[in-house]
Amino acid sequence: MAVKHKSKVIFEVGLDENRIPEQIKWSADDANIKNEPAEAIMISVWNDKTKETLRMDLWTKDMKLYEMRVFFYQTLKSMADVYRRATNDDKMADTMLDFVDYFHEKLELDKYPEQ
């Protein structure tokens, strides 16, 4: 199958003198997003040659703990949804969502008004 269209997603990370992220901005051509600020990113890339996942996880030093907890909760929930769509494995997706609910409950995320 030939490539019919290309799209770019760009992340720009501003680092302090110790190479700790201070600022993250991202742009996406197809979504009409230009230099949008972000506090954290998680990127997973599957390498078919080595059969392993490569990751890049970054967050700014100013990101609040409760924001990180909500970020993880939403990411885990999203992963379960993507797993369901990609595999049609409802049983495992539901099992993953059970853990996500447990995660939410144990971190008491309902107590954070910023959610």
Q: How many structural units, i.e. domains?
A: 2
Helix content: 25-40%
User: Strand order across the biggest sheet?
Assistant: 1-2-3
Which residues form runs of ≥5 with pLDDT under 50?
none
Radius of gyration: 17 Å
Shape: globular
Structural class: alpha+beta
Largest sheet: 3 strands, antiparallel
Highlighted features:
single chain; 115 residues; alpha+beta; three-stranded antiparallel beta sheet; globular
Task: Describe what is shown at a glance.
The chain is of the alpha+beta class and 115 residues long. The chain contains 2 helices and 5 strands, in the order βββββαα. It is 35% helix and 32% strand.
Describe this structure in words.
The protein is of the alpha+beta class and 115 residues long. It has 2 domains: 8-62, no CATH class; 64-110. The protein is 35% helix and 32% strand. The chain has a 3-stranded antiparallel sheet, with no helix packed on it. The protein has a two-stranded antiparallel ribbon with strand order 4-5. Strand 4 and strand 5 (52-59) form a beta hairpin. It starts with 8 loop residues before the first strand and ends in a 9-residue tail after the last helix. The mean pLDDT is 95.
What is the element layout, followed by pairings?
Layout (H helix, E strand, L loop, with lengths): L8 E7 L5 E8 L4 E6 L1 E8 L4 E8 L5 H23 L2 H17 L9
Antiparallel strand pairs: 1-2, 2-3, 4-5
